[in-house]
Design goal:
The complex is a heterodimer of chains A (317) and B (346). Chain A is α/β, with parallel strands linked by helices. Chain A is 53% helix and 13% strand. In chain A, the strands form two sheets. In chain A, strands 3-2-4-1-7-8 form a six-stranded mixed β-sheet. In chain A, strands 5-6 form a two-stranded antiparallel ribbon. The model of chain A has no long low-confidence stretch (mean pLDDT 87). Chain B has 346 residues and is an alpha/beta fold. Chain B has two domains: 79 residues, no CATH class; 239 residues, Glycerol-3-phosphate (1)-acyltransferase. In chain B, strand 3, helix 8 and strand 4 form a beta-alpha-beta unit. The model of chain B has no long low-confidence stretch (mean pLDDT 90). At the A-B interface, helix 2, helix 11 and helix 12 of A face strand 6, helix 11, helix 12 and helix 13 of B.
């Protein structure tokens, strides 16, 4: 009975979703649909349908995680075929250095991850993001924040020496300074440099999914980068390669994307709003602070100047 | 099954509203029972807002809030089912107005009026009472978020149209704002609900329950720009189907030469009056479950110099080291330390 329910949740997450009503309330569904509409530039009704399907998949994945199956990865792998041929990863299996598997946060990518986890002999270290807590009960792997991934790659401890670093470039916890704006889904999106930093420090190749012929293929990025003299253009080339592939997977099956809200938050427009709001909270503090009136006036003028520069940047964009 | 249950419930609301309200209150208590995620979320909100209150009291508040919000659902259905002929009589029967002298003075004055109410108690009844009392004497417009942001807005628009007294429901967009300007320019009255916000560049932060709440500046901006009377309005539930619609004395609008300064301080004053009301009877506010999403995370409003330093440091830690805001904080620290040194030398 328990197994049957868990298997049903698996099918509901990774296979088709037929639902007219969203599991979220009307307001949250509306916001989600609005984000999708903005990102994809599509009709509102279609965005709404995508939002409902995506919300159901997220809900079922959460429910699956809450059931804490003994071996979630095996269960998912048993109920869902691998969305891409794993031949490339099999060839990398015997290598003596770590490599990166960068995936968008979609149900297909999670299914692929389940197959990788069940078949590989290598330790798998998954990037911790605001959404991966759902995966924690399902995958008995290490979870680490991006800075920790980079540190472990540099230290090359026993587990990291031959690890597979799994990252989710479509949403991440990285701060502004360690991201680069890239063209993505027709707009600007802040991509984390985590994959690039792992790559230059020996975690190679960088493998990701690409949508092709109604399915997916795994592709590897193996361009040489001199670790001693990393150039900005090398990083940009890597991120551009990654962004186009992640974008193709998202556009191929938008209803399977589970990270729409976070994708919308990492767009440049959203980043600009965040920066303005950071300035506003400082304004509020300055207004209330125990500081001399002269300093307060200077601070308010300075903060308005910074805000104006953000607005000019936005207008230019 | 769901459709049948929904039809049965609507029938109950039409024919026996007090029984429906009773059922809704208990349904609310059940849905927010201890141990559920909903209960935990709301309890966290209450804990953040009232850290001094004991745990049992917070649990009781969660229960009372759940009852109140579910009862509101029935009251709203009841209003929806009334015909245009029935609606004015129903409002007169169920609502008692207190503080009418404040509204009377505002309506008698040629100055425009901005009335604000949080989503508190039966705020729909508050809006409808306001429309009925004011529409014969001033042009009245009530602001709502557009339907794509707020699915409730069309229901409220229908209710205002049912009253058929010339009041209009405006959407919080460009055309709505232009109509509001026109109304205020002619000395009219507009109603607004300042306790909603959008994550956008026009948002500011003002103190609210010892946190910094996201706040929209529209209410304060319109009141300041047109030098309007700024009236608080609350709809308190006094029993099943009975409401006390209370107008408080006008909030003072800050007027200096600096518009940004005035708007911030007036918005802060609006939130201060809302907080005072919520501290007295918190269970009637509809947004407790999302309270923590309405305030800037992990930064408290400083009550002394030491706390102010802590708050500044905690915000500064989030900035990228090379961002202009990080440079600003460094400059600010530099100026303050110079001023402090000069002060101690003197």
């Amino acid at each position: 009975m328990i197994y049957r329910t868990t298997a049903r949740l698996c099918r509901g997450t990774f296979n088709g979703v037929e639902a007219r009503k969203s599991p979220l309330n009307a307001l949250d569904t509306g916001f989600l649909a609005r984000d999708i509409e903005r990102l994809l530039g599509c009709e509102h009704d279609w965005a709404y349908a995508v939002a409902i399907a995506s919300a159901w998949r997220s809900k079922r994945l959460d429910a699956l995680g809450r059931r804490r199956p003994r071996n979630g990865a095996a269960l998912i792998a048993a109920s869902t075929p691998s969305p891409a041929d794993l031949g490339l990863l099999t060839r990398l299996e015997d290598g003596d250095h770590p490599y990166i598997l960068a995936l968008p946060y979609t149900t297909d990518a999670i299914a692929l991850l389940a197959h990788v986890v069940t078949q590989t002999r290598r330790p798998v270290i998954i990037e911790q993001t605001p959404l991966t807590h759902t995966l924690m009960p399902l995958f008995q792997c290490d979870f680490a924040k991006p800075d920790m991934l980079i540190r472990r790659n540099r230290a090359r401890d026993d587990r990291a020496a031959r690890a597979i670093f799994v990252t989710f470039p479509d949403h991440h916890l990285t701060v502004e300074g360690t991201t680069r704006p890239m063209t993505f889904l027709g707009g600007e999106f802040h991509f984390s440099l985590a994959e690039g930093l792992l790559y230059v420090r020996g975690a190679r190749p960088l493998v990701t999914l690409r949508a092709a012929d109604g399915g997916y293929v795994l592709e590897a990025y193996e361009a040489p980068i001199d670790a001693a003299a990393v150039r900005e253009q090398d990083m940009r080339a890597l991120l551009e390669w990654l962004a186009t592939r992640i974008e193709s997977v998202i556009l191929a099956a938008p209803s399977k994307v589970l990270s729409w809200r976070l994708i919308a938050q990492r767009t440049s427009a959203a980043e600009r709003v965040r920066r303005v709001l950071e300035g506003r909270i400082l304004q509020a503090l300055v207004r209330m602070g125990p500081i001399a009136e002269e300093t307060r006036s200077w601070a308010m003028v300075r903060l308005r100047g910074i805000e104006d520069s953000y607005k000019e940047e936005e207008a230019a964009a | 099954m769901n459709r049948t249950a929904s039809r049965a419930f609507r029938g109950l609301v039409r024919n026996a509203p007090s029984v429906a309200a009773f059922a809704a209150r208990h349904c609310g208590e059940f849905r927010y029972r201890p141990g559920t995620a909903r209960h935990e979320q709301m309890r966290r909100s209450f804990h953040a807002a009232f850290p001094e209150r004991p745990e049992q009291e917070l649990d009781a508040l969660v229960r009372a809030t759940a009852r109140s919000s579910h009862q509101y659902m029935v009251e709203q259905y009841e209003l929806d089912y009334l015909t245009p002929a029935e609606l004015p009589g129903f409002i007169r029967r169920s609502a008692t107005v207190t503080g009418a002298e404040h509204l009377e003075a505002a309506l008698a004055s040629p100055k425009p009026v901005v009335v604000f109410t949080p989503h508190y108690g039966n705020f729909a009844m508050a809006c409808l009472t306001l429309v009925m009392e004011s529409a014969p004497r001033k042009q009245v417009s009530i602001f709502f978020n557009p339907p794509e942001k707020n699915p409730y807005a069309p229901r409220m628009r229908k209710l205002i149209e049912k009253l058929d007294c010339g009041a209009q429901a405006l959407h919080n967009d460009r055309s709505g704002l232009l109509k509001a300007f026109r109304t205020l320019h002619k000395g009219g009255l507009i109603g607004m609900m300042p306790d909603v916000f959008d994550y956008e560049a026009a948002t500011i932060f003002v103190p609210f329950f010892q946190r910094f709440a996201f706040a929209m500046t529209g209410t304060a901006f319109l009141a300041r720009k047109y030098d309007a009377t700024l009236l608080p309005l609350y709809a308190e539930r006094t029993g099943t189907g009975r409401f006390n619609i209370r107008f408080d004395r006008p909030v003072d609008i800050v007027k200096t030469g600096d518009m940004d300064h005035d708007v911030w301080h007036t918005t802060a004053a609006i939130f201060r009056t809302i907080e005072e009301q919520l501290r007295c009877e918190p269970e009637h506010w509809m947004y407790w479950d999302t309270f923590l999403g309405r305030v800037y995370p992990n930064v408290t409003v400083p009550s002394d110099d030491v706390q102010w330093e802590d708050s500044l440091a905690s915000i500064a830690r989030r900035f990228w080291a090379r961002s202009p805001l990080a440079h600003f904080v460094q400059e600010l620290d530099g100026r303050r330390s110079i001023a402090a040194a000069a002060g101690s030398a003197a």
